[in-house]
Amino acid sequence: MTEKKMKRGFKESRFAVFWNRLKRNRNAMIGLYVFLLLVMLIIIVPIVSPYDYAKYDIMSISQKPSLKHPFGTDDLGRDLLTRCFYGGRYSLSISLAAVLFSTSVGTVIGAITGFFGGKIDAVIMRMLDVIQAIPSTLLTIIISAALGVGIDKTIIAISVGSIPGTVRLLRGSVMRTREEQYLEAAEAIGCSTTRRIWKYVVPNSWSPLIVSSTMGVARTILQLAALSYIGLGVQPPTPEWGAMLSGARGYLRDYPHMLIFPGLFIAISVLCLNMFGDGLRDALDPKLKD
């Protein structure tokens, strides 16, 4: 058996152990399947819906849920079912993009500070301390207000506050991993520092970061909704869930369905991701036994 086949078999066996642990966690699998179902509906429903999410219909203004409009309509006669599912495209894609951006930047900085330490670590970590001294929500609002509205600017505003936490999490893992003997062996055979970091150190330090990123998507969905609710995130008529809540807040007493359904989508998404994240953390925990 070649060395490449042995490595592939080892990776497959590790994944099999992880997947078996995850499958035994009922809550995690429920969260995963419900979230995947929601994503499929978010993709399909706007395509098959007979209604345009942005088209006004003055004959259907503020209708309550019915067979024609299962979620009712908003103050401009737009079908809420279509807008809720279409809005999920914005809410989930922006949240995923923000988490990917913050995780990518945090991974680079965390790997450098954790591996090299010394003055580089001290300077970077003190700069991150300054950022973390500002409450995350307040920092997001400040950056969003400074950059202005727009999807790209919203992604940056939400991402910045998450970078210090990602850096600290990966830095701690890297500092433990860099003492392993296989890194000494890699250095002895002439492996470059860059190769050691990205081929050996980071892949073996990713487990806590994967769990953090999964739960970070849920947290980012809430941050995005809050930002849009106060008018700094996604702007109308784009049907993002937080923006829909903001547009419906004046109709809570007479037409509560206008807030209930977007709120349910936010709650279900966050709950499913948190359930799956908890199971993912348990499955990746090396201290757990089969």
In short:
By secondary structure, this protein is mostly helical. The chain is built from twelve helices and no strands.
Any key phrases for this structure?
single chain, 290 residues, mainly alpha, MetI-like fold, 72% helix, 0% strand, elongated
Describe this entry's structure for a reader.
With 290 residues, this protein is mainly α. It has one domain: MetI-like fold, CATH 1.10.3720. Helices cover 72% and strands 0% of the residues. The chain has 12 helices and no strands. It has helices at residues 3-23, 26-48, 80-116, 118-132, 136-147, 151-160, 163-177, 181-188, 193-201, 207-229, 241-248, 257-284. Helix 10 runs antiparallel to helix 12 (257-284). The longest helix is centred in the middle third of the chain and has 37 residues, at 80-116. The two termini are 28 Å apart.
